[in-house]
Amino acid sequence: MNNKSPKYWAIVPAAGTGKRFSADIPKQFHHLNGSLVAQHTLSRLLSIPVIEAIVSPCDISSGYWSKVPAIENPRVRLVAGGDQRAHSVLNGLMAIHELAHEDDWILVHDMARPCIAPASIGKLIREVGDHSVGGILAAPINDTLKIVTPQGDIVSTANRAEYRAAQTPQMFRYRPLRDAMQSMLNNKKIPTDEASAIEYSGAKAIVVEGRQDNIKVTRREDLVIAEAIMKNQEAE
Description:
By secondary structure, this protein is of the alpha/beta class. It has 6 helices and 11 strands. It has helices spanning 37-46, 85-95, 118-128, 174-186, 194-200, 221-235; strands spanning 8-11, 31-32, 35-36, 51-58, 76-80, 105-108, 134-140, 146-148, 154-157, 164-173, 206-209.
């Protein structure tokens, strides 16, 4: 372990086109409560003083970035994204390989989660603490879970106490995360999130309970929900 206090870096992949969103404009550039989705997300991360820099792997050539004031902040850096989210995250990790120590913390956050509460990020940082690997924000499952066949037939009811809905940020040490992502991709496997790459490597991460309002904007109707959440957060 590094004897010095670890630094914190954020990677916010934003190269996706959002196929399930069904719009010509990528979802991170849609308006939400007075600003673009990307502006909200980056602003909330910028409010965390310990984060050294925020790296966003994306389509740098997109003209929509000019409408996101947060990219003018010296702590924000745009780099080229990859074909899939995992490739973008790895690009972000490689972009800071000369700056980050192997024991530094990397917080990977979805650009499409603009409702993340800064207090939740602080909670993740505190509760993961000196863990050797890292952890993720995750929310309890409130709905009943059904296990079904590909044809839609119900097989059984899952014990929801054993499940959590993974969220972001997901926070891991730099070197283990980079190696885990690279190893999985080298083996032609695509991790669905950073925790799945860590699991693939055989390491154990922890869960920190997150808020139910840390939703991911996946479909157009999610913007309406996100706006209601933001207005409620403003009233807190």
